[in-house]
């Protein structure tokens, strides 16, 4: 019941343009803008390789249990950084070509990319402290 009320309140909020005209932004929108699902190779090139911001690339699969734990944990920490880093989610079953190109042999695999280059990487699940350190290293904090 509480979830339904929260959803109704959310859906009844004014549109983004109206919020912007009042000088406010909806709190969760920053997280949505900084995390996206890669649609295809061209999208990956445009939004990841050519990104002016550092990008964390989460190679995952629907059937992967650890991915279901890591993904939301990583998304939360990326959202906290308020746009300093972006997060691209790549489903290896949908984008096998990208997985092969970036030598992904197990999931979850997370790449840190800057200026189109892989600068760091890990495979497997990490706790929040380890993820924070990974992200801080990527943004140079």
Automatic annotation (TrEMBL):
<dbReference type="GO" id="GO:0015035">
    <property type="term" value="F:protein-disulfide reductase activity"/>
</dbReference>
<dbReference type="InterPro" id="IPR013766">
    <property type="entry name" value="Thioredoxin_domain"/>
</dbReference>
<protein>
    <recommendedName>
        <fullName>Thioredoxin, mitochondrial</fullName>
    </recommendedName>
</protein>
<keyword id="KW-0676">Redox-active center</keyword>
<keyword id="KW-0249">Electron transport</keyword>
<dbReference type="GO" id="GO:0005739">
    <property type="term" value="C:mitochondrion"/>
</dbReference>
<comment type="similarity">
    <text>Belongs to the thioredoxin family.</text>
</comment>
<feature type="domain" description="Thioredoxin">
    <location>
        <begin position="24"/>
        <end position="140"/>
    </location>
</feature>
<dbReference type="InterPro" id="IPR036249">
    <property type="entry name" value="Thioredoxin-like_sf"/>
</dbReference>
<dbReference type="GO" id="GO:0045454">
    <property type="term" value="P:cell redox homeostasis"/>
</dbReference>
<dbReference type="InterPro" id="IPR017937">
    <property type="entry name" value="Thioredoxin_CS"/>
</dbReference>
<keyword id="KW-0813">Transport</keyword>
<keyword id="KW-1015">Disulfide bond</keyword>
<dbReference type="InterPro" id="IPR005746">
    <property type="entry name" value="Thioredoxin"/>
</dbReference>
<dbReference type="Pfam" id="PF00085">
    <property type="entry name" value="Thioredoxin"/>
</dbReference>
């Amino acid at each position: 019941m509480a979830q339904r009320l929260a959803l109704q309140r959310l859906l009844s909020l004014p549109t983004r343009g109206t919020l912007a005209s009042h000088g406010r932004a909806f709190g969760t929108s920053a997280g949505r803008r900084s995390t996206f699902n890669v649609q295809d190779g061209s999208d990956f090139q445009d939004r990841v390789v050519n990104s002016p911001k550092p990008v964390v690339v989460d190679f995952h699969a629907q059937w992967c249990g650890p991915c279901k734990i890591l993904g939301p944990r990583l998304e939360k920490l990326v959202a906290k950084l308020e746009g300093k880093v972006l997060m691209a989610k790549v489903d290896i079953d949908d984008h096998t070509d990208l997985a092969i190109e970036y030598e992904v042999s197990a999931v979850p695999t997370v790449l840190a990319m800057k200026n189109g280059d892989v600068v760091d990487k890990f495979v497997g699940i990490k706790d929040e402290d380890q993820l924070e350190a990974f992200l801080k290293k990527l943004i140079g904090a």
